Amino acid sequence: MSFQPVGSAAARAGRAQQDTKNRLLDAAERLFAERGFEGTSLRAVTRAAEASVSAANYHFGSKEALLHAALLRRLEPLNRRRLECLASAEDAARGAPLTVEAIVAAFLRPGFEARRSLQADQASDGHIAARLYTDPHGMVASLKAELFGPVIGRFLEALGRALPDRSLAELALGFQFLIGVMVHVISGHGGGPAATAIPEHQLLDHMISFTAAGLRAASHPGSTAETAGGRR
Amino acid sequence: MSFQPVGSAAARAGRAQQDTKNRLLDAAERLFAERGFEGTSLRAVTRAAEASVSAANYHFGSKEALLHAALLRRLEPLNRRRLECLASAEDAARGAPLTVEAIVAAFLRPGFEARRSLQADQASDGHIAARLYTDPHGMVASLKAELFGPVIGRFLEALGRALPDRSLAELALGFQFLIGVMVHVISGHGGGPAATAIPEHQLLDHMISFTAAGLRAASHPGSTAETAGGRR
DNA sequence: GTCTATATGTTGATAGAC
DNA sequence: GTCTATCAACATATAGAC
Q: What gap in Å lies between CA A161 and CA A154, rounded to an integer?
């Protein structure tokens, strides 16, 4: 956010500053995602970034602020893209209610693509936002609420139009289920025994079909104890 | 596992030993669940258990072994109950294939009830097994694979009989989605904005309906880009 | 079995030179 | 802006008294 001098004397210093700051953010993103916040020492980050502890504290002020910056850098554009996808789908529908599939796709695809490009770039095994979604640190929870709150509200509106006979509470709960699926997959924890046999390019479609069908399904109280029924 | 002397001289020592060990396990369970493994110092555990660090290392050997014991104490009976529920449902069905609902209920209900009794007992905000399911620590992952692997395999068999036209890979992936939903809810992270408006006693039914419908749904490739379709 | 005391290393953050 | 050097606090684990 601060402007660098353009003169030739300070040019190298200016470039180096940007580089150090970004190297720190990159290293923090990778290590926090791999080992969690408490499991990662500030020194491990600075070592990976080939910088000193002081440089990190100069740029960010504290370890917690570094996490905040690294998380925000990925999460903010991600949620912006989610809203853009939903808006453009609504524009294309010209006032007609969207498919449940189209709505959940608008929410899931941005994170899914972020995961794919991350897999290609480095050897990180999961997106930082998904990995830290369940981190016990308090700052993560508050940042999560602040950034996801409005987005979820916007998607619940769209879902309410697609499924007008369902209560807001039901839809909100179903959307929490969807988030559970997403976090599990994007964080890389969903690589169970035979689940990896599904080719990567079909994964998003499966997630969309699963969650859309789940959202559409009404709750069947009492279905829990029966062993025989109309459906298989 | 070790037998205590029954004589009156060592009776108090024997009882105290058991108490200390259990107090340590209780405190470790609560704190590890709240703050994660790396975020919890052994001292914080022993302080909460009103014991010394040495007592913890005497009984368990290390902080990591304490986590292992605390996690195993809850996870082992939980997974045993899951298998029992599935077996008794299959017995009651007398050879007929089970409902998808009955299968996912057998998997979900034990964890759900553990969460409920935990909510009643103490102020812990989530089951340790669910909270630590995503913990980056390596031991958690290996214990998870060791304990969940056979259980998941057994449930996939039952699902294969209920949905014979689906590939094993598809079912395994769908079951991973189900686990994502479960971990999200049981760990207490699924308490979003309006989702808490659902009464507690309906939560399990909603989870079952959502995941069963998701498992039944086939993937619709290309459903991701369309904005209008036959369904709403 | 449980304690106090201690050994040994690491942590996050800062001071001050350049 | 970036470094080296240093701080006080805290970590895990152990030794030895009782």
A: 11
pTM: 0.92
- Number of H helices and E strands in chain A, helices first, is 9, 0
The closest nt to B59, taking CA to C1', is: C1
Q: Which residue of B has its CA nearest to A191?
A: B176
Angle between helices A200-216 and A168-186 (to 10 degrees): 160
How close B162 gets to chain A, by Cα (Å)?
6
Residue A150, amino acid: P
Contacting residues for B65 by C-beta, under 8 A, at least 6 apart: none
* CA atoms within 13 Å, Cβ hemisphere of A60: 26
Residues with Cβ within 8 Å of residue B46, at least 6 apart in sequence = B24, B27, B52, B53, B55, B56
Contact A89 B227 (CB under 8 A): yes
Read off the pLDDT of residues B24-72 as tens digits, 9 standing for 90 and up: 999 999 999 999 999 999 999 999 999 999 999 999 999 999 999 999 9
Residue closest to C15 C1′ by Cα: A54
Nearest-by-Cβ selection for B223 from A101, A152, A214: A101
Please name the residue ranges forming H helices in chain B. 11-35, 42-48, 53-60, 63-93, 100-121, 128-131, 138-162, 168-186, 200-216
Eight-state DSSP code of residue B216? H
How high is the pLDDT of residue A31? 98
Q: Is B152 exposed, middle or buried (0-12, 13-18, 19+ CB in 10 A)?
A: buried
**Phi-psi label, residue B95: left if phi above 0, alpha if psi -120 to 50, beta otherwise:** left
Nearest to B64 by CA among B82, B37, B89: B37
Q: What is the pLDDT of residues B150-187, one digit of tens each?
A: 999 999 999 999 999 999 999 999 999 999 999 999 99
